[in-house]
Amino acid sequence: MIFVAEHSVRISLLVAAALAAVALLRSGSAALRHWLLAVALAGAAAMPLLTIVAPSWHVTVPRSASPVSNAPAVTLTIMPQDPDRGSIDVGVAQRDSDVRAHTPGIAAIVIAVWIAGIAVSGALVAVGLMRLRRLALRAERIDRGRIVELTAALARAVGVDRPIAILEGRDAALVVTWGTAHPRILLPFAARTWSDDRLRVVLRHELAHIRRGDWVAQLIGEVVRAVNWFNPVVWLACARLRRESEHACDDAVLATGVDPADYAGHLVDLARALNIRRPARLPAPAMARLSTLEGRISAMLNHRLDRSPITRPARFATAVVLAVLTLSIAGFAGQRYSRFTGTVLDQTNAYLPGVAVSLTSADTQAKHEVRTDRTGHFEFVGLPDGDYTIAALEAGFERLSEPLTIAGRDVDRTIQLHIGSLHETISVTPGPSAWPYDPELRQKARQWAEDKSREVTKRCSGSGASGGMGGNILQPMKIADVKPRYPERLQAAGTGGVVTLNALIGTDGTIRDVRVVNGADPDLDRAAIDAVRQWEFSSTILNCTPVEVPMGITVNFVAKR
User: Fold this and answer.
1) Distance between CA atoms of residues 356 and 401, nearest Å
2) Beta carbons within 8 Å of 329's beta carbon, 6+ residues apart
3) CB 265: neighbour CB atoms within 10 A?
4) Each residue of 313-326: pLDDT tens digit?
5) Cβ contacts of residue 289 below 8 Å, gap of 6+?
6) Contacting residues for 225 by C-beta, under 8 A, at least 6 apart
7) What does residue 408 show for φ and ψ, rounded to 5 degrees?
8) What is the DSSP secondary structure assignment for residue 468, as one 8-state letter?
9) How many CB atoms lie within 10 A of CB 227?
10) Which of 9, 34, 23 is nearest to 318 (CA)?
11) Do 7 and 230 contact (CB within 8 A), yes or no?
12) Any idea which of 34-43, 82-91, 113-122 has the lowest mean pLDDT?
């Protein structure tokens, strides 16, 4: 979709510039105006290729920084929740995923409509070319006689040295010219009865089309319009191209000494005779169209207009200017904007809905925030190039924060959040060396935890939680707790300290991998580790799957003074 928009804007800028120049030259030569439009449309036809090979340049638009939120930092912990959340609505999440997979996005729809329009417009051009071919096959070629001799004499006079086929069509309403190496002029069967003056006027007009190469210019315009069928600027340019082509050929006829009033009279009579019915649309210059008749006659009778043909220096200069303009527009990248999309999963690869995902610009500190949908999908659009920090926040999971660079292209990323860590702080004072649970109470707590675990597992048995809707956590509950023993030597010495530990609660609820992060006295460290290793929790269930949970412990040994 971005390509279609950029392509349309580039072509609109180029063609609009040519139309503006034509408007400024409305009192000038019609041949010059036609040449401007023809070169501009040729540049529009080459624009897709030029965007690849032309040197790229862009203008960076300064952006003002958006206000940054001063919200306090958030501590993530595993929050208590209803165990019933362990029942995972996998079916709904899977249906949402399937709908997204089979529902075309806006960009795909736009591209499909554009291509369909090109197919229809291109088919119309092809049909027009087939009509021309059919007209030629059905027409009778005139090889000798007054018309052929007059055509040859007039062709030599205007410098057309290519062989020209004169065709007499069965259609009484057509005078049309097409072809390049072997041009054809199609005349109605009534042309045999025309006077020499009228025949000279018509042939000079058609020979001017051949000498100027108007059929090629019009064909290029038809192709550009077929590709840019939705662009009104291109339609205006193609209509103006045909009009200026007729004006330029009229000027070429008048330059041979034909009286403007006589020429206008012939044109009106021809229009009356040739427009008995509405002619079929053809991709070729056709004489005496009613839609342009009034403007052409008005121009013929305006003696102040410049009727001179375009000179070679003027042709070269305008071509160079438009070529430079075309290359500049093709290479212009402007301020690029990209899209950042992704999916947020938990550590079981299940979707996480409702996650707050934020994107903060490193340059402006502008912050953008969205929430994931039911299938964990998120999307940021209209992002200028630059460095960003992406953050994802969801209760029960560790906060994710990592750098992201946007550099002229869309980015898609899968983000995986891991379950958040627990933290417990203990104060230990001199006194009893242990704080054991009652064995019967410990057994009851263990039995309650096991019952809850089985209940959750039964709910989601066979549901295929992995890959469905995630974030369903059954929090751990401490079953066995042992208070650290304050070493007697340090009690007597009045020595205290703070010991910080990291540990891992295993899938079975036991404590593993206890490590000292910040220690105090070695005896205090050992006492804290020995106690923590005896702790026991119920299993932590994430989407029907037991998972390990990191834990931080702070043990504050408070000595008596």
Assistant:
1) 12
2) 10, 13, 14, 47
3) 14
4) 999 999 999 999 98
5) 246, 271, 275
6) 121, 234, 235, 238
7) 75, 10
8) S
9) 21
10) 34
11) no
12) 82-91
537 touches 553 (CB < 8 A): no
Burial tier of 373 (Cβ tally within 10 Å: 0-12, 13-18, 19+): middle
Distance, CA of 268 to CA of 82 (rounded, Å): 89
Cα separation, 482 vs 81, whole angstroms: 26
The residue among 556, 473, 551 whose CA lies nearest residue 512 is: 551
Beta strands in 58-195 (DSSP E): 140-142, 165-169, 176-178, 184-188
- The pLDDT tens digits for 335-385 are 567 889 999 998 888 889 999 999 999 988 989 899 999 889 999 988 888
Give residue 6's Cα distance to chain centre.
9
The pLDDT of residue 369 is: 92
**Tally of CB atoms within 10 A around 48:** 14
Q: Are 14 and 47 in contact (CB under 8 A)?
A: yes
- Residue recorded with tokens 């051009």: 125
User: CA 218 to CA 177: how far, in whole Å?
Assistant: 12
Torsion angle, alpha carbons of 376, 380, 386, 392, to 10: -30
* Greatest pairwise CA separation for the chain in angstroms: 135
Task: List the one residue out of 496, 495, 553 whose CA is nearest residue 528.
Answer: 553
Location of structure tokens 């165990």? 83
Tokens of 366: 């502008």
Tokens 């036809």 appear where? 45
pTM exceeding 0.85: no
133 Cβ contact partners less than 8 Å away, ≥ 6 residues apart: none
Q: Are 50 and 253 in contact (CB under 8 A)?
A: no
Q: Which residue has the higher pLDDT, 19 or 333?
A: 19
Residue 372 to residue 378: CA distance in whole angstroms: 5
Q: Are 349 and 375 a contacting pair, CB within 8 Å?
A: no
Structure tokens at 61: 């638009």
Going by C-beta distance under 8 Å and a sequence separation of 6 or more, which residues neighbour residue 451? none
